[in-house]
Fold:
Amino acid sequence: MGTVAAIGARTSVGGLALAGVEVLVADDPDAVRRAWRELPTAVSLVILTASAAEALGTEATEPEPDQARPLMVVMPR
Structure:
């Protein structure tokens, strides 16, 4: 069973740590992309803020060939 991670601004994802979610604080687009690329392989679900999803663009939805990607969900604004 994989783990759950959240990527986004501290104010949006910080509280998820109380539920056992691995919180990856990323306050700007470069930090979001870096957090996405450095996700541990054990992560099977990623919760993205709407801003984080926008920063990732197609990087999250079009993975490299032979590269598995976790299930994603985008928080509403």
